[in-house]
Amino acid sequence: MQLAVFVARRLAVLVPTLFFVSVLIFSLQTLLPGDAAIALAGEESDPAAIAGIRAKYHLDQPVVVQYGIWMSKVLRGDLGESLRNRIPVTELLASKLPVTVELAVCSMLIALLIGIPTGVVSAVRRGTAVDVAANAVALSGLSVPHFWLGIMLILLFAVRLGWLPASGYVPPWEDLGRNLTTILLPSIVLGTGVAGVMMRHTRGAMLQTLSADYVRTARAKSVPERLVVLKHALRNALIPVITLGAIEFGRLLSGAVLTEQIFAIPGFGKMLVDGVFNRDYAVVQGVVLVSAGLYVLLNLLADILYFLANPRLRGA
Amino acid sequence: MNDSGAVLAMPAVVEARRPSALRRLVRRPAALIAMAVVAAFVVIALGAPYVAPHDPIKQDFLAVRKAPSDAYRLGTDEVGRDVLSRLIWGARASLLAGVIPVSIALVVSVPLGLLSGCTGGWLDGLIMRITDAMLSIPFLIVAIALAAFLGPSLTNAMIAIGIAALPTFLRLARGTAMAITTEEYVESARSLGCSRVRIAVRHVLPNIVPPLLIQSSLTAAAAIIAEASLSFLGLGQQPPAPSWGSMLNAAQRYLVQAPWMAIYPGLMIFGIVMSLNVLGDALRDALDPKYV
Description:
By secondary structure, chain A is an all-alpha fold. Helix content of chain A is 78%, strand content 0%. Chain A contains 13 helices and no strands. Chain A has helices at 3-27, 36-41, 47-56, 63-75, 89-124, 129-143, 146-160, 176-210, 213-220, 225-262, 268-277, 281-309, 311-315. Chain A starts with a helix and ends with a helix. Chain B is 74% helix and 0% strand. In chain B, helix 10 runs antiparallel to helix 12 (260-287). Classes of the chains: A mainly alpha, B mainly alpha. The interface between A and B is large, with 52 and 45 residues.
């Protein structure tokens, strides 16, 4: 199958999914208790202001019409305006998203550096104390609440030892060194959870490939064990792990919400939380919409990577 | 009924080859420890009025941020409340978070999953597209957005987490149901004239329980973290009622003066979530033949 055909088929499936995503996100505002116009007006109780909001957001129209208007604006890249500071939501997103992407990339690097080698060692030494310890560490990474780990790391590295700043963010173009020191602790916090997932999947995939016929053949040919593990087994085991990495990258956005809050990083997650507390519903909807869009795109990317890495699919 | 003979014969054959699921479960020391921790957590949460040494919301401005001592085993918080008592009472919010969202997800996903998996067609397509859409939004972001629009309270947080957990359960129930409907014993039941409802309830339902049980344990763990996260953000349990998440929120401001306020609630969340994850893994090993 050609890559183009494969991508076209996947995109065709994505259209209805994205349609339902948009319906779900639009429906969020119907959950607002009581009159949505009053809820949107917030502390503003002036009837004229409420009437203005009702007209502006077409709340006097049938729900289907409201959805149509909202969707047509979304398709034109108009996600509304922040009620708080009157800045277009797309502009806010454009300024906050790169910060979160940097955090997610650094976290993923940490996760890969910890998760893959640990998974390989754990599989090669299956059943030994090393395997048990690696599994326990992976499960701990999955079970620890990120926001608590963040607080504990601040307590140790910022408060007690004074090695790293407790919070804040410096953009890389202003000062790369300070940027790295501010992003290190949050990246460790987010990376540990994903490292646990990576380790478990690498271990599982390695156990499968290590028992495959071609590995047995390689061993029978007296190929050095190091080459058997790294060249024959790991290369094949990494195919599902790479695709998982793309999906986990999407999940990092979710984890970033609390981590950014704890470390006062002005990213996408903090924007969501601030939107929630300011009752800035357009911001909340915008963040949810973009995170869903990114998640869908990353899933598509994972599928494409899997397609490219797996010759059997290309031959199908 | 004649059709049940074929079904009853299956477990008997499996039984002869493998020890029972419960025996396989209790054979693992990690699973036993995890079960003990979960049981202790439930007992402490339910028996909070009898176990807690102090009133969890009583403020004592003469004992503000006191370090752990004989009077206050785990110290006091920023308004002089006993941290240990708040942890014990806070277990209730976490217990509810572990039980209610999973129950919401199960109550909705089992009938819909059976309907979708057993009937197929356009209804299955529609349910699956909605599920795909819900799965496209990261779990915690769905929960935060729903809690934000519903309004901050523990009940709304539970509903939000339950809705966020729903698509995973639905997909699992539907997928398992679909796989089971192709089994020979279901074919036999169908050829003997059993109705669709009877097949779904008598033959498919009992077989989707094991994967849902495993998922319930893992989701309870995720739900406890989600509740703590929402309470940490101020979207869950409202003050002065205790919750481990809201205790961590307050603790963040006194890391230098009172680190005990931050250490213990996190350890509690970590302990119970780790136990539920170990239990989920052990249940999967015990119930899913693929993992044996």
